[in-house]
Design brief:
By secondary structure, the chain is of the alpha/beta class. The protein folds into two domains: 216 residues, 3-Layer(aba) Sandwich (Aspartate Aminotransferase, domain 2); 132 residues, Aspartate Aminotransferase, domain 1 (Alpha-Beta Complex). The chain contains 14 helices and twelve strands. It has a seven-stranded mixed β-sheet, with helices on both faces. A five-stranded mixed β-sheet has the order 8-9-12-11-10. α6 links the parallel β4 and β5. The longest helix has 20 residues. 46% of the residues are buried. Bound molecules: pyridoxal-5'-phosphate. Pyridoxal-5'-phosphate (PLP) binds next to α3 and α4.
Length: 379
Amino acid sequence: MKRSMQPLRSRPAVPPIYQTSVFAFDSLEQVDQAFGGEAGAFVYSRYGNPSVQALEVTLAHLERTEAALVASSGMAALAIGVLSLCGQGDHIIAAQDLYGGTQALFQRDFSRWGIDVTFVDALNVSRVEDAIRPNTKLIFVETISNPLMKVADLSRLAAVKRGFGIPLMVDNTFASPVLCRPSEWGADLVMESLTKYLNGHSDVTAGAIMGSKGLIERMRSLHTDFGAVTSPFDAWLVQRSLQTLKLRMQQHCRNAVLLAEFLAAQPKVMKVHYPGLPGHPQHALAATQMSAYGGMLSFVVEGGCYGAAQVIKRLQRVDFVPSLGGTSTTVSHPAKTSHRGMTGMDRVRLGIDDGLIRVSAGLEDGDDISADFAQALAW
Ligand SMILES: *Cc1c(COP(=O)(O)O)cnc(C)c1O
């Protein structure tokens, strides 16, 4: 059915949601323009959609890169980014403590496709150098690691990759571009799970990868072929959430500092992992590389799994949620969630104690959160 739309006589203050899977053309000439990639000419939403493209422009600006590609999840963005650079017979060097999904992709799936991954202690840059082979096509690290909050030295890693001409890709999900922009420290590709801080309201699953125009363009065909697209509505929600990203990050960080200091003083707490504490092994690095120390922390409660279970059961306001970056403070238990696929021995080797509880500091009043942990630790 042909319907002509009345042209608007004023602009909407908020960009509309282009909730359409396909676009209509008035002439063959228009079709040619759209398929020729002319700016503003769209064909089919798996190839591109104005609401998604608007988000890509914003994200590239936030991460200070030339271009961005938005995908259906953080994992989709990561997989597309890595697979656009690596194929059968290639080799990747990755940090040994990684998000569980990334670990599974690299270890379980890539080995089937003939992509070899060496996991190294990326905090020790010489280990990364030692692992380089003639077929190494990528170095992959997280800005702040999960769940022990180790901070990667991006400028030293960038110096290594520059020496060898190997791209450096950084998962910046725990930091967000408010705290750290890896491209400014020399990273070629930056990946974000938009599901976490960038959307920040626990109601969207999406991801993005940012980099030079050339690198991002190489990913577009893979992205279209995999069909790992984000819905226009979800893209619009993330775009809306980005307006408060800086304010939210400030409050997440403020609450994380308060809670880290509070927990460090509790007799039942054996250790607190937070880059903002002076005792953290990369405290000085975090101070130079990040504008604040982040909203994520973890701590070891005495009593192993039993102790962790007591705390989690007793928390009143703080939910057990195996994700992060939402408005409410949440806890997770790495040994039973993200790292449950590992053997107990491997967890011990990485320093993931059975009593380790990970906290995503929310936006509430900081004293309320500390009070909840105080009563939960009184078992
Ligand atoms: C959540 C997360 C991912 C994966 O993102 P999804 O949106 O869940 O696919 C990758 N890396 C880190 C550090 C994460 O926290």
